[in-house]
Amino acid sequence: MSWIREGELSLLERLTANVLKAGPMPKHVAFIMDGNRRYAQKRHVERQEGHTQGFDKLAETLRWCLNLGIHEVTVYAFSIENFKRSKEEVGGLMELAKEKFLRLLDEQCFLNVCFAYTSRHEIANAVKEMAWGVEQGLIKSSDVSEALLNECLYTSSSPNPDLLIRTSGEVRLSDFLLWQTSHSCIVFQSILWPEYSFWNLCEAILQYQQNHHAIQKAREVHREGQAVQQLESDHSCVAELLQHRGNGKPVDPQCRQTALQSYAASREERVQRFIGALQQKRDTFFDHLLSPTAVA
Ligand code: FPP
Ligand code: MG
């Protein structure tokens, strides 16, 4: 039997879920699951028990999400900073991950687990990937844009989260999805992660619904701004090209428009070729990482 689908919502929970579902629902929710150790201390149990209960809470939360029609969830399971914790705690978390990851893979829901992750590292890596593309002659430096950087992030195949929830009363993002959450509703809740309840999740969704209009508006304004930026960049590249070709002679508007269209099409072609090459580079890296000779 499925581990996430086990257990039903109570009648009251189902009723509340239906009321919430009448409003705009987040499609993608991200969690910073914080407070496992404080929970362990509060309950006078071992630290590792706090993390184990934190994992069980994740399974329960995924079930609530499925019941609420939320089909994509991203969690911050382990940050690069967490490697600074005691050897014993890091070892315990790694064991937990090893044991539980296989179980997660068996599930049919869309869960992204950020492990040994920080957002600034991800953004810096995306910049390096674009520099590599320019170096390889796959793209031009003028092709570098916000949209292209977005394509180079690890999360490029997912839509940005609509809602980000952090538990335990900490009001920081702690280097989690900094780029992806600029137009997300961010909810900080004081509850410790292992104590998270269905009602806490409903409260966060309600906050999302109350802010939905402003969030959508901000996204729209950003999208429009990006399109204008791209057009301006294409215009200036085409102007430079035409000036170079025509030795500075004036160009008629029809000819300029045709040149602009063909430039945009060739830029798109370069970008797609670069994204394909990048994907191939990543696949080779993972193949190498998983090959038995890499371990030896
Ligand atoms: C934050 O609480 C939690 C973590 C650093 C680990 C999160 C991991 C899990 C919930 C389980 C493993 C998950 C997977 C997907 C394998 P904290 O340790 O910072 O506690 P504190 O804030 O009270 O100190
Ligand atoms: Mg913490």
Automatic annotation (TrEMBL):
Topological category with respect to the lipid bilayer? Peripheral membrane protein
State whether keyword Lipid biosynthesis applies.
no
UniProt xrefs under SUPFAM superfamilies = Undecaprenyl diphosphate synthase
This chain belongs to the protein called ditrans,polycis-polyprenyl diphosphate synthase [(2E,6E)-farnesyldiphosphate specific]
Where found in the cell?
Answer: Endoplasmic reticulum membrane
| Cofactor requirement | Mg(2+)
Name a biological process GO annotation: polyprenol biosynthetic process
One GO MF term on file is:
ditrans,polycis-polyprenyl diphosphate synthase [(2E,6E)-farnesyl diphosphate specific] activity
Report quaternary structure and partners. The active dehydrodolichyl diphosphate synthase complex is a heterotetramer composed of a dimer of heterodimer of DHDDS and NUS1. Interacts with NPC2.
Family classification: Belongs to the UPP synthase family.
According to its UniProt entry, the function of this protein is described as: With NUS1, forms the dehydrodolichyl diphosphate synthase (DDS) complex, an essential component of the dolichol monophosphate (Dol-P) biosynthetic machinery. Both subunits contribute to enzymatic activity, i.e. condensation of multiple copies of isopentenyl pyrophosphate (IPP) to farnesyl pyrophosphate (FPP) to produce dehydrodolichyl diphosphate (Dedol-PP), a precursor of dolichol phosphate which is utilized as a sugar carrier in protein glycosylation in the endoplasmic reticulum (ER). Synthesizes long-chain polyprenols, mostly of C95 and C100 chain length.
Which pathway, per its entry? Answer: Lipid metabolism; Protein modification; protein glycosylation
Keywords (A to Z) from UniProt:
Endoplasmic reticulum, Lipid metabolism, Magnesium, Membrane, Metal-binding, Transferase
Q: Which residues form a coiled coil?
A: none
